[in-house]
Design brief:
Layout lengths: L3 E8 L5 E6 L2 E6 L8 E4 L4 E4 L1 E6 L12 H10 L2 E6 L10 H14 L3 E4 L15 H6 L6 E2 L9 H12 L4 E4 L12 E2 L2 H6 L3 E2 L1 H18 L2 E4 L5 H12 L4 E5 L1 H5 L21 H13 L4 E2 L8 H4 L16 H9 L3 H16 L16 E11 L18 E11 L2 E5 L2 E2 L2
Parallel strand pairs: 1-4, 1-5, 6-7, 7-8, 9-10, 10-13, 11-12, 13-14, 14-15
Antiparallel strand pairs: 1-2, 2-3, 5-16, 16-17, 17-18, 18-19
The structure holds (4S)-2,6-dioxohexahydropyrimidine-4-carboxylic acid and zinc ion.
The site of zinc ion (ZN) has 5 residues, from loops.
């Protein structure tokens, strides 16, 4: 195993130091280190962060390998500074059995670029009718702890209650895609002034807020852990704020796109901006940013949702919802939060690792800690070029935008997955 001597790096914005990475861990930290036989990485001007952890990634395998594979998505993740991702269950077949979650887990190990932690479906086939084999998935080699029907809401309150009760035994989590289905029938975008003007059917904020309000009450009643996927409205933030103040065991995520873009994008009719939940208003964006800073929203999660060209480059009404996220998440966080490295580490690494229970991830680089880390050049600015992305899909809403920050290197257990801004494999 090669040793790496990272010279002159700023750990989370602190004064420059050296890090020696050997045998999978950070072996030493301090100025003026030397190590015979180690490969030197000149990290002057670079910031070291704990490897990022994504709680919400769509890897599309099995079933839609034309849009993404576990390997291509893992590569995109590594290039984005991630060392672990949680793979959503809405594959084909759905990850609702021990067999499928083990398959995804094994493919992740084979790719070896990030740790891939499968999420299991809550209900069989994501159909919202019968609970999937949650216990079998938990007991499988994939050791599933998070369950989600993401893409669909677990709308039946009785089923949601049962799911929360079931996972309590092993301190599991139900991650809810909060969307009241009756309130969003035929919805194409956020319900508001823009949808009225464009004549597109609206997806009202209350469809999200009503489910979150119900689910925090259910989680409180049962005493289980609830995670709310892709929170997108100011009203949702207030529901979460009240629930947290009461001590409900609820965590929540926001996506980079909901922190940056608004429903005004729909005016272009470019389906690259179609996503679920939809892009909201500038007031919602402001509330989400504030909630991310004050902690009512716990983490940034990408909802990386690759789609094949034929599913995305078509009429708005027929396009699938979703956008790429892994390779642009940290630059957007930098853009939105500024170089607040401790906050970025908290929201994009430590807290998601803790929620998902991913041992060895989310730990600041320090002696004895597993060497899962990423090196960022905060001074670099890059134009997003869809053709340069490692994802098999091209549906980035940031094409042509200049974003701050470049991920220079990523290490997974001491082995580089990215060096000089390029994937090692
Ligand atoms: O925009 C979305 N795309 N939202 C979801 O909930 C699912 C995801 C997908 O799988 O494409
Ligand atoms: Zn979702």
């Amino acid at each position: 195993m090669t040793a790496y001597l990272i010279k002159g790096v700023s750990v989370l914005g602190a004064a420059p130091t050296d890090l020696l990475i050997r045998d999978g861990v950070v072996a030493e930290a301090g100025a003026g280190l030397s190590a015979a036989g180690a490969t030197t990485v000149d990290a002057a001007g670079l910031v070291a962060l704990p490897g990022l952890v994504d709680l919400h990634t769509h890897l599309r395998e099995p079933g839609r390998e034309d849009a993404e594979t576990v390997e291509s998505g893992s590569r995109a993740a590594a290039l984005g500074g991630y060392t672990a991702v949680c793979a959503m269950a809405n594959t084909s077949p759905v990850a609702d059995t021990a067999g499928v979650v083990e398959q995804v887990w094994r493919l992740g190990r084979e790719a070896g670029l990030v740790d891939v932690q499968p999420i299991g479906a809550v209900t069989v086939g994501l159909a919202g009718e019968r609970l999937a084999e949650l216990g079998a998935m938990a007991d499988s080699a994939a050791r599933v702890r998070i369950f989600s029907d993401d893409g669909h809401c677990v709308a039946d309150p009785r089923l949601m209650r049962r799911a929360l009760e079931y996972v309590k035994a092993f301190d599991g989590i139900i991650a809810q895609h909060a969307e009241e289905p009756r309130l969003t029938e035929g919805a194409q975008m956020h319900e508001g002034e823009v949808s009225t003007r464009l004549g597109l059917t609206g997806w009202p904020a209350v469809a999200e807020e009503a489910i979150i309000a119900r689910d925090v009450l259910l989680a409180e009643h049962v005493g289980s852990r609830l995670h709310v996927c892709h929170v997108s409205t100011a009203g949702s933030v207030e529901v979460l704020r009240q629930a947290k103040a009461r001590g409900v065991r609820v965590t929540a995520e926001v996506t980079p796109h909901h922190l940056l873009l608004t429903d005004a994008r729909a005016e272009t009719y470019d389906p690259v901006y179609k996503v679920n939940p939809p892009l909201r208003t500038a007031e919602d964006v402001a509330a989400l940013r504030a909630a991310l800073v004050d902690g009512v929203v716990d983490i940034v999660a990408t909802d990386h949702a690759p789609h094949a060209v034929e599913d995305k480059e078509c009429e708005w009404a027929y396009a699938r919802p979703g956008m790429l996220g892994l390779e642009t998440a940290l630059p957007i966080a930098l853009d939105v939060l500024g170089p607040r490295w401790d906050l970025i580490a908290e929201r994009m690494s430590r807290t998601p690792a803790r929620i998902a229970g991913l041992d060895g991830h989310g730990l600041d680089p320090a002696p004895g800690v597993p060497a899962n880390l990423t090196l960022v050049d905060p001074a670099a600015r890059r134009v997003v070029e869809p053709g340069e992305l490692a994802s098999r899909s091209r549906n980035t809403p940031y094409a042509g935008m200049t974003l701050p920050g470049r991920i220079v290197a990523t290490f997974l257990r001491g082995e580089p997955t990215v060096l000089d801004g390029k994937a090692v494999r």
